[in-house]
Design goal:
The complex is a heterodimer of chains A (114) and B (110). Chain A is mainly beta and 114 residues long. Helices cover 0% and strands 54% of the residues of chain A. In chain A, a hairpin with a 3-residue loop joins β4 and β5. Chain B has no helices and 9 strands. In chain B, the strands form 2 sheets. Chain B has a 5-stranded mixed beta sheet, with no helix packed on it. Chain B has a 4-stranded antiparallel beta sheet with strand order 2-7-6-5, with no helix packed on it. Classes of the chains: A mainly beta (114), B mainly beta (110).
Chain lengths: 114, 110
Amino acid sequence: DAGVIQSPRHEVTEMGQEVTLRCKPISGHNSLFWYRQTMMRGLELLIYFNNNVPIDDSGMPEDRFSAKMPNASFSTLKIQPSEPRDSAVYFCASSFGHPQETQYFGPGTRLLVL
Amino acid sequence: DAKTTQPPSMDCAEGRAANLPCNHSTISGNEYVYWYRQIHSQGPQYIIHGLKNNETNEMASLIITEDRKSSTLILPHATLRDTAVYYCIVTETSGSRLTFGEGTQLTVNP
Protein backbone atom coordinates (compact mmCIF):
# COMPACT_ATOMS: atom_id res chain seq x y z
CA ASP A 1 0.00 0.00 0.00
CA ALA A 2 1.22 3.50 -0.78
CA GLY A 3 0.17 4.85 2.58
CA VAL A 4 -1.67 8.10 3.10
CA ILE A 5 -1.13 10.43 0.15
CA GLN A 6 -1.23 14.20 0.50
CA SER A 7 -0.98 16.90 -2.12
CA PRO A 8 0.52 19.29 -2.67
CA ARG A 9 3.61 18.64 -0.55
CA HIS A 10 4.48 22.34 -0.52
CA GLU A 11 2.29 25.36 -1.09
CA VAL A 12 3.23 29.02 -1.12
CA THR A 13 0.42 31.52 -1.53
CA GLU A 14 -0.42 35.10 -0.80
CA MET A 15 -2.71 36.33 1.92
CA GLY A 16 -6.32 36.30 0.84
CA GLN A 17 -5.99 33.46 -1.62
CA GLU A 18 -7.90 30.19 -1.36
CA VAL A 19 -5.88 27.11 -0.47
CA THR A 20 -7.03 23.53 -0.94
CA LEU A 21 -5.18 20.63 0.59
CA ARG A 22 -5.93 17.09 -0.52
CA CYS A 23 -5.70 13.70 1.11
CA LYS A 24 -6.16 10.12 -0.03
CA PRO A 25 -6.42 7.75 2.94
CA ILE A 26 -5.20 4.18 3.00
CA SER A 27 -7.63 1.95 1.13
CA GLY A 28 -10.09 0.28 3.47
CA HIS A 29 -9.61 2.77 6.30
CA ASN A 30 -12.86 4.29 7.55
CA SER A 31 -11.60 7.20 9.65
CA LEU A 32 -9.73 10.25 8.44
CA PHE A 33 -8.09 12.97 10.49
CA TRP A 34 -6.69 16.43 9.68
CA TYR A 35 -3.96 17.84 11.95
CA ARG A 36 -1.99 21.07 11.94
CA GLN A 37 1.52 21.47 13.33
CA THR A 38 3.21 24.74 14.25
CA MET A 39 6.13 25.59 16.47
CA MET A 40 3.89 27.57 18.80
CA ARG A 41 0.98 25.14 19.18
CA GLY A 42 2.54 21.79 18.35
CA LEU A 43 0.45 19.11 16.68
CA GLU A 44 -3.30 19.66 17.02
CA LEU A 45 -6.34 17.85 15.66
CA LEU A 46 -8.55 19.98 13.43
CA ILE A 47 -11.31 17.57 12.39
CA TYR A 48 -11.98 13.92 11.92
CA PHE A 49 -14.38 11.88 9.79
CA ASN A 50 -15.78 8.43 10.32
CA ASN A 51 -17.36 6.69 7.33
CA ASN A 52 -17.15 10.01 5.44
CA VAL A 53 -19.16 11.86 8.11
CA PRO A 54 -17.58 14.67 10.15
CA ILE A 55 -17.61 13.55 13.79
CA ASP A 56 -15.61 16.19 15.63
CA ASP A 57 -14.70 19.55 14.13
CA SER A 58 -14.07 21.34 17.41
CA GLY A 59 -10.46 21.90 16.46
CA MET A 60 -11.24 23.85 13.30
CA PRO A 61 -9.90 27.32 14.08
CA GLU A 62 -12.59 29.43 12.44
CA ASP A 63 -15.04 29.72 9.57
CA ARG A 64 -12.25 30.27 7.10
CA PHE A 65 -11.47 26.57 7.42
CA SER A 66 -13.67 23.87 5.94
CA ALA A 67 -13.20 20.16 5.31
CA LYS A 68 -15.06 17.69 3.16
CA MET A 69 -14.96 13.98 2.52
CA PRO A 70 -17.12 13.26 -0.54
CA ASN A 71 -16.13 9.59 -0.61
CA ALA A 72 -14.03 7.03 1.25
CA SER A 73 -10.92 7.71 -0.80
CA PHE A 74 -10.68 11.49 -0.82
CA SER A 75 -10.81 14.47 1.51
CA THR A 76 -10.05 18.16 1.21
CA LEU A 77 -9.18 20.88 3.70
CA LYS A 78 -9.86 24.36 2.39
CA ILE A 79 -8.78 27.71 3.75
CA GLN A 80 -10.53 30.76 2.34
CA PRO A 81 -9.26 33.42 2.66
CA SER A 82 -5.80 32.37 3.82
CA GLU A 83 -3.80 34.43 6.34
CA PRO A 84 -0.11 34.38 7.30
CA ARG A 85 -0.95 32.78 10.66
CA ASP A 86 -2.25 29.73 8.76
CA SER A 87 1.31 28.89 7.78
CA ALA A 88 1.97 25.42 9.16
CA VAL A 89 2.41 21.79 8.23
CA TYR A 90 -0.93 20.08 7.69
CA PHE A 91 -1.08 16.33 8.18
CA CYS A 92 -3.75 13.90 7.14
CA ALA A 93 -4.06 10.53 8.89
CA SER A 94 -6.32 7.53 8.51
CA SER A 95 -7.27 4.52 10.61
CA PHE A 96 -9.50 1.49 10.51
CA GLY A 97 -11.94 0.23 13.07
CA HIS A 98 -10.86 0.17 16.69
CA PRO A 99 -8.72 1.39 18.13
CA GLN A 100 -8.97 4.48 16.00
CA GLU A 101 -5.96 5.85 17.79
CA THR A 102 -3.69 3.65 15.68
CA GLN A 103 -3.46 6.26 13.00
CA TYR A 104 -1.27 6.32 9.91
CA PHE A 105 -0.04 9.75 8.93
CA GLY A 106 0.76 11.17 5.54
CA PRO A 107 3.92 13.15 4.74
CA GLY A 108 2.20 16.48 5.29
CA THR A 109 1.65 19.66 3.28
CA ARG A 110 3.90 22.57 4.15
CA LEU A 111 1.88 25.75 3.71
CA LEU A 112 3.39 29.21 3.66
CA VAL A 113 1.06 32.19 3.41
CA LEU A 114 2.85 35.41 2.59
CA ASP B 1 -7.71 12.35 28.58
CA ALA B 2 -5.04 12.08 31.24
CA LYS B 3 -2.05 14.39 31.09
CA THR B 4 1.40 12.98 30.41
CA THR B 5 4.85 14.22 31.43
CA GLN B 6 7.97 13.39 29.46
CA PRO B 7 11.56 14.66 29.66
CA PRO B 8 12.20 17.20 26.90
CA SER B 9 15.32 15.49 25.61
CA MET B 10 17.44 12.36 25.94
CA ASP B 11 20.60 11.03 24.38
CA CYS B 12 21.49 7.45 23.59
CA ALA B 13 24.52 5.75 22.09
CA GLU B 14 24.00 3.84 18.88
CA GLY B 15 23.47 0.13 19.54
CA ARG B 16 22.42 0.67 23.11
CA ALA B 17 18.91 0.44 24.51
CA ALA B 18 16.94 3.68 24.66
CA ASN B 19 14.54 3.87 27.59
CA LEU B 20 12.02 6.70 27.30
CA PRO B 21 9.93 7.38 30.42
CA CYS B 22 6.43 8.79 30.63
CA ASN B 23 4.42 9.75 33.70
CA HIS B 24 0.63 9.59 33.57
CA SER B 25 -0.41 9.61 37.22
CA THR B 26 -4.04 10.58 36.50
CA ILE B 27 -4.69 7.77 34.04
CA SER B 28 -8.10 6.14 34.38
CA GLY B 29 -8.97 2.48 34.07
CA ASN B 30 -10.21 2.61 30.48
CA GLU B 31 -7.38 4.72 29.08
CA TYR B 32 -4.66 3.26 26.91
CA VAL B 33 -1.04 4.37 26.63
CA TYR B 34 0.04 5.09 23.06
CA TRP B 35 3.48 5.92 21.72
CA TYR B 36 4.14 7.71 18.46
CA ARG B 37 7.31 9.21 17.08
CA GLN B 38 8.02 11.93 14.56
CA ILE B 39 11.21 11.93 12.59
CA HIS B 40 12.21 15.36 11.37
CA SER B 41 10.04 16.66 8.52
CA GLN B 42 7.89 13.51 8.46
CA GLY B 43 4.43 12.65 9.73
CA PRO B 44 4.06 10.97 13.11
CA GLN B 45 4.48 7.20 13.15
CA TYR B 46 2.61 4.78 15.41
CA ILE B 47 4.94 2.65 17.54
CA ILE B 48 3.00 0.68 20.12
CA HIS B 49 0.17 0.86 22.64
CA GLY B 50 -0.98 -0.94 25.76
CA LEU B 51 -3.54 -0.97 28.55
CA LYS B 52 -1.91 -2.66 31.53
CA ASN B 53 0.19 -5.54 30.28
CA ASN B 54 3.64 -5.11 28.83
CA GLU B 55 3.66 -5.16 25.05
CA THR B 56 6.30 -5.89 22.44
CA ASN B 57 6.36 -5.58 18.68
CA GLU B 58 8.99 -5.37 15.98
CA MET B 59 9.75 -1.75 16.81
CA ALA B 60 9.77 -1.52 20.58
CA SER B 61 8.65 -2.74 23.98
CA LEU B 62 6.25 -0.97 26.30
CA ILE B 63 6.55 -1.48 30.02
CA ILE B 64 3.63 -0.22 32.12
CA THR B 65 3.94 -0.12 35.90
CA GLU B 66 1.49 -2.13 37.95
CA ASP B 67 -0.29 1.00 39.19
CA ARG B 68 -0.35 2.28 35.55
CA LYS B 69 0.90 5.69 36.63
CA SER B 70 3.98 5.52 34.44
CA SER B 71 5.40 3.65 31.48
CA THR B 72 8.65 3.20 29.59
CA LEU B 73 9.18 2.79 25.89
CA ILE B 74 12.22 0.67 25.12
CA LEU B 75 14.06 0.67 21.82
CA PRO B 76 16.34 -2.33 22.36
CA HIS B 77 19.12 -1.44 19.92
CA ALA B 78 18.88 2.20 18.96
CA THR B 79 20.12 3.29 15.55
CA LEU B 80 20.78 6.74 14.13
CA ARG B 81 17.44 6.49 12.31
CA ASP B 82 15.65 6.34 15.67
CA THR B 83 16.51 9.99 16.28
CA ALA B 84 13.08 11.60 16.57
CA VAL B 85 10.56 13.21 18.89
CA TYR B 86 8.72 10.52 20.86
CA TYR B 87 5.19 11.22 22.07
CA CYS B 88 3.47 9.41 24.92
CA ILE B 89 -0.32 9.78 24.70
CA VAL B 90 -3.03 8.56 27.04
CA THR B 91 -6.50 8.26 25.57
CA GLU B 92 -9.75 6.36 25.62
CA THR B 93 -10.28 4.23 22.55
CA SER B 94 -13.78 5.56 22.13
CA GLY B 95 -12.61 9.13 21.80
CA SER B 96 -10.43 8.85 18.72
CA ARG B 97 -8.70 12.05 19.73
CA LEU B 98 -4.94 11.98 20.00
CA THR B 99 -3.58 14.91 22.01
CA PHE B 100 0.10 15.36 21.26
CA GLY B 101 2.17 17.06 23.95
CA GLU B 102 5.76 18.26 23.73
CA GLY B 103 7.28 14.79 23.57
CA THR B 104 10.88 13.74 24.14
CA GLN B 105 13.56 14.56 21.58
CA LEU B 106 15.69 11.42 21.42
CA THR B 107 19.09 11.85 19.83
CA VAL B 108 21.01 8.70 19.00
CA ASN B 109 24.72 9.40 18.79
CA PRO B 110 27.28 7.40 16.81
